[in-house]
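Sequence, please.
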């Protein structure tokens, strides 16, 4: 050791206990963050060795406490906690994964007996509900009928309305009821798109390991209600409250001039605030709330639970002081603090015990525990302890956007808090006015600080900024917090107050609708790379710290990379393709140097849900795409279902296709017909329509068209770059159309092929495959779809000609560039995670 350094090391103080604890908390969060980003789980003995490494590091930290510089033990404690947390999180994941649905049981008819484990959610097409399985056996005529099978403890089922040959619609369900029913299950599988929602992680975090639907046709035994149990009393209470709120649709006051539809929509907001049923709020209202930045207020969030805990503690403390015996047994402040947390826990359970509620209750319990223990820690230590407590309970919450919004907001308020001082005034009235003024200014400042700090984080997570969010929240936060929510909660004691709560939602919706119509209400920006986004978050935090404003302004340059970021475009003469993961349907985004084309828009799943709204618009906004053309190959729902949403958001796009009565009414507008021979060029890239023939040239045009005419008239588009690399988008053409293209000598060769008709056995003849001779053939279809796409014979045809066949269920979104025609990138392979479907197989 250097003689120069020895005196310095001797003067170094030993590690204090809080430093070790703080280091362990940081290590715990880091260990969880490391483990949940793993592409695959280790073997159980690997996690055992990791735990032993953590124990060894903790022992080394204890021995090194007085021997080396205090940074050494600090690092050892952090590494020890990280190893222990990584091992524990991995072991939990292994145990959970061991209960997964067995692959041979997917798609089989199973007779299950169990209990409705949560409040059923009504939908336009039927019901969705969680089902706790007690026992299961095979159903039907196949070999092994009646044999007991092992299913995951918790599954999610849908019970759809009547269709031809499927029997009656869903029967009324109540939480806690025991039922026997026939179901078909599959492993959880969600759509995987760049910057998209990870449904598989969400189901994993919820404890759901299989999804499926109820079979109630003539060939299956009818669903049977066995008995009402008391296994889930809170869920049953939530359901009864929800039904009581939304069940009374009629407006009680005839003299109020309000549309019935607006009244019903406001009822949904009240139901969401009382029992946390976010499905009760219509999609249009959610879009309004997101556009104005108040979506966090319209469901039970940390703000509501914190307010409830504060009010409950205040009322309980006042009532406690009325009894001298109670005060002697337990001081009123202690009773109020503990009672507030317990009542907040009850309210969170009533709201459905969602992840935001769990985070808030954990934070309240940590703060209350510290106060009851007489501990006064600095704000950053309290914040870190609450963060570690939430991560310890739910490590996968680290991937939830609401997790970071909640903790960053709380941390910012802690870091920038200023005590509101009221000068000593002789008059009580003046003191009250000054106090109210100080509190109002503090509320305004807190709202401005949180908005400023969270705007870059919202840009990182969602790619959008609500420019009217500050004003909307200044109006909505006090109104929802002090008027709507108390009336909604008190309605549980006296139901007519729900009418007042509903009426109080109406003026708020009107103001928000006016704000949302402003031309600068919302700003969508492309998703910046991680380094630019983190720099912007750091800049937002720096701007709100308690520092002189001259120093705080240094945070502004950190915002610029994220605000001015633009995704790279293809070079002149090149183009890129992105086959989005939209389930059973087609949707391909084509990008050139300065133009964009969207080929089909995927399916429409219900009145309030389609691939355009849920998948394509977020994808387009994340890449800052402004469509020049929307081409609809033909009129089937799985190709045009999202068109209305896309055109509503991108009205400048030219619509091209073969118009048909099957197109949605919202898409019946000026359209350029799709016919062979059409040709245009964008940025050195040539686009050519190969099919269908113009009506005047079509053989047999005077004869009636068959029922499958929409498929046979699909627009076939070929795209070729300046280097000769080409792509072919074939829609739903079938054998006859493939043969006609071959007979006409159409130029079909392509490096990238969108497989016709999703891989149906009616398409992709060997001659067609040989003529196209693609490097990559992409099938856009849903996981375990009822059509069996891609058909096994079709798969064999492509494999026989040594074509790489890629299906969207295994690949997710597929990206390809004409500049690198030999390379295709799957979204699932780009960021693999152990909870994804591919990792479970």
């Amino acid at each position: 050791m250097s003689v120069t350094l020895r005196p310095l090391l001797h003067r170094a103080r030993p590690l204090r206990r809080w430093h070790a604890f703080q280091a362990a908390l940081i290590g715990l969060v880091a260990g969880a963050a490391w483990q949940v980003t793993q592409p695959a789980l280790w073997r159980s003995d690997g996690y055992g060795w990791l735990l032993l490494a953590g124990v060894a590091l903790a022992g080394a930290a204890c021995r090194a406490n007085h021997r080396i510089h205090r940074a050494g033990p600090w690092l050892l404690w952090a590494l020890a906690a990280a190893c222990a947390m990584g091992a524990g999180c991995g072991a939990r994941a292994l145990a959970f994964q061991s209960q997964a649905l067995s692959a041979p049981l997917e798609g089989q008819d199973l007779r299950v007996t169990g209990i409705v484990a949560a409040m059923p959610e009504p939908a336009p097409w039927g019901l969705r509900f969680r089902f706790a399985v007690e026992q299961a056996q095979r159903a039907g005529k196949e070999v092994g009928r009646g044999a007991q099978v092992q299913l995951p403890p918790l599954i999610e089922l849908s019970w759809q309305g009547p269709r031809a040959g499927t029997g009656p619609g869903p029967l009324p369900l109540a939480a806690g009821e025991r039922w026997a029913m026939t179901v078909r299950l599959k492993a959880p599988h969600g759509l995987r798109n760049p910057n998209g929602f990870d449904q598989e992680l969400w189901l994993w975090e919820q404890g759901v390991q299989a999804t499926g639907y109820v079979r109630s046709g003539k060939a299956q035994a009818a669903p049977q209600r066995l008995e009402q149990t008391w296994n889930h009393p809170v869920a049953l209470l939530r359901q009864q409250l929800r039904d009581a709120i939304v069940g009374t649709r009629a407006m009680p006051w005839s003299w109020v001039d309000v549309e019935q539809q607006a009244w019903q929509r406001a009822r949904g907001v009240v139901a969401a605030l009382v029992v946390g049923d976010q499905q009760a709020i219509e999609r249009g209202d959610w879009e309004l709330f997101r556009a104005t930045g108040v979506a966090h207020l319209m469901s039970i969030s940390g703000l509501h639970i914190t307010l409830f805990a504060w009010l409950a503690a205040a009322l309980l403390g006042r009532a406690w002081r009325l009894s001298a015996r109670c005060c002697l047994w337990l001081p009123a402040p202690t009773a109020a603090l503990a009672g507030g947390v317990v009542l907040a826990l009850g309210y969170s359970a009533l709201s459905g015990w969602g992840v935001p509620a769990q985070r808030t209750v954990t934070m309240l319990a940590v703060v209350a525990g510290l106060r009851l223990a007489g501990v006064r820690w600095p704000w950053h230590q309290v914040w870190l302890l609450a963060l570690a407590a939430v991560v310890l309970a739910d490590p996968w919450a680290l991937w939830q956007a609401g997790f970071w919004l909640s903790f960053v907001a709380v941390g910012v308020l802690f870091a920038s808090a200023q005590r509101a001082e009221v000068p000593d005034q002789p008059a009580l009235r003046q003191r009250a006015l000054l106090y109210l003024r100080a509190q109002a200014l503090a509320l305004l400042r807190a709202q401005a600080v949180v908005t400023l700090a969270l705007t870059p984080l919202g840009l990182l997570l969602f790619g959008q900024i609500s420019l009217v969010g500050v004003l909307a929240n200044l109006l909505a936060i006090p109104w929802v917090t002090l008027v709507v929510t108390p009336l909604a909660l008190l309605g549980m004691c006296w139901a007519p107050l729900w009418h007042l709560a509903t009426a109080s939602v109406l003026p708020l919706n009107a103001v928000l609708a006016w704000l949302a119509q402003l031309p600068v209400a919302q700003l969508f920006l492309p998703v910046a790379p991680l380094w630019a986004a983190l720099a912007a978050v750091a800049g937002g935090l720096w701007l709100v710290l308690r520092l002189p404003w001259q120093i705080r302004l240094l945070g502004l340059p950190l915002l610029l990379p994220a605000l001015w970021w633009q995704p790279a475009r293809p070079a002149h003469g090149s183009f890129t393709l992105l086959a989005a993961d939209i389930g059973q349907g087609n949707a391909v985004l084509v990008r050139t140097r300065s133009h964009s084309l969207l080929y089909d828009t995927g399916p429409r799943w219900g009145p309030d849900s389609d691939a355009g709204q849920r998948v394509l618009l977020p994808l387009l906004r994340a890449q800052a795409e402004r469509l020049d053309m929307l081409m609809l190959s033909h009129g089937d729902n799985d190709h045009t279902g999202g068109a209305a949403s896309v055109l509503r958001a991108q009205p400048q796009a030219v619509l091209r296709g073969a118009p048909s009565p099957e197109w949605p009414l919202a898409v019946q507008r000026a359209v350029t017909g799709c016919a062979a021979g059409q040709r245009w060029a964008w940025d050195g890239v040539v686009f050519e329509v190969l099919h269908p023939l113009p009506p005047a040239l079509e053989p047999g045009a005077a004869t009636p068209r068959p029922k499958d005419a929409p498929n046979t008239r699909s627009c076939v588009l070929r795209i070729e770059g300046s280097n000769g690399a080409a792509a072919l988008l074939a829609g739903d053409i079938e054998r006859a159309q493939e043969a006609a293209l071959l007979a006409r000598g159409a130029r079909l060769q392509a490096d990238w092929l969108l497989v016709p008709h999703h891989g149906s056995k009616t398409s992709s003849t060997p001659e067609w495959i040989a003529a196209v001779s693609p490097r990559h053939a992409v099938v856009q279809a849903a996981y375990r779809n009822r059509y069996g796409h891609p058909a096994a014979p079709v798969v064999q045809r492509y494999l026989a000609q040594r074509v790489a066949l890629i299906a969207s269920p295994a690949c997710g979104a597929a990206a390809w560039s004409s500049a690198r025609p030999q390379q295709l990138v799957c979204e699932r392979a780009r960021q693999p995670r152990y909870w994804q479907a591919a990792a479970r197989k």
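The two ends are 54 Å apart (CA to CA).
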